[in-house]
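[Q] Does anyone have a clean structure-token version of this?
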Amino acid sequence: MGRVNALAPNGPHDPARPNDTDRPGPPGPSDPHDPLAAFLALRTPEGAELLAGLRSYDPAQELATATRLRRSHPAHLVSAALGQARLRQRAVAKFGAEDAYRMFFTPNGVEQATRTSVATRRAQRFVAAGGVRSVADLCCGIGGDAIALARAGISVLAVDRDPLTAEVARANAAALGLDGLIEVRCADVTDVDTSPYDAVFVDPARRGGRGRIFDPEAYSPPLSWAVDAALGAPRAALKIAPGIPHEAIPERAEAEWISDGGDVKEAVLWFGEGFAAGSYRATVLPDGASLWSAGPPPAPPVGPVGRYLYEPDGAVIRAGLVADVVARCNGRLIDETIAYVTGDEPYASPYTSGYEITDRMPFNMKKLKALLREREVGVLTVKKRGSAVEPEELRRRMKLHGPNSATVFLTRVAGAPTMLIGHPMDGPA
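[A] Here you go.
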């Protein structure tokens, strides 16, 4: 396994603190502003009691809360507890209240951690592959994926090179009663021998000091290193940004795009036995439905707008499987460059949102305004593909008023700017 120098950490890193693999000791009295010492203070009985009392605190009242608590607790401990309480509140959206209020977080950890539904899906695929009893989780962050794997009955080695992040992951394993299945190690992932493990999971850091990193070779560790690590394991999963170009996907990988609640969350490259190299998959959560193709499907037909319009889920679009949806609904594209599918018969699936189209007209703001006024539309949903018009600006110019609702699609039909007006298929006629 090759060595990559100067890896960026998954969480905030103090360059003055050595990256040893020993568990950090208790905080000293002279370092109350050190992030790791502040976190460890929260793990003391006093810190735990203070944090438990902040579950329902209102951040808008933070000054008053801090003033009250500082009468009986050290200022640095109060500050750390308030910060952790805010992070827990943010984490509820990803982890659910039951877990979030028992877990610990860092700002980067909340932002970058895999949400529970997606991590659970990934753990289920490892289990379904068969023979996976142990996984080396490289770049584990605060432990979201390690937790899901452990809950699936898999033994996990969770590795992160940042001491604070590793300690948070260790605390989370203990808080959820999973420390018997999760070993946390503070180390450079490129130094870890993964040969004893049945599978490897790699989640490279995709953010730097200037925000998101779009070049896969600028990931930390780089995509090429992560692929080599994956190919050296019996089975592996590699988490990547969903916007990765298809041409950058290794031939020996199965590529899966995952959406949750309509939002594309991530892409995963799967390697080894139990996964189909060269295939593409779109998985839609929370339904769990999965659309699969052995390779790039043929170009779908293009034709006139029918009675119904179908908007494929973002994972389907990213995976390049719109043609599969076209075939399933016996439909066609409205334009060869636009991922809107139309058909003459009603069709429902987890992979699409369906709309009944009532009107079609060339792009014209005045005509649209007149139509919406005539229909007494007071609530307008604006969707667009292939249009530069901003939805908020369009709604502002429509001056909406009335009891009814409608959906307008700003798009292209056969290359021409077009407006399609309708409503969800389960909406009003």
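[Q] Thanks! Anything notable?
[A] The first strand starts at residue 134 and ends at 138.
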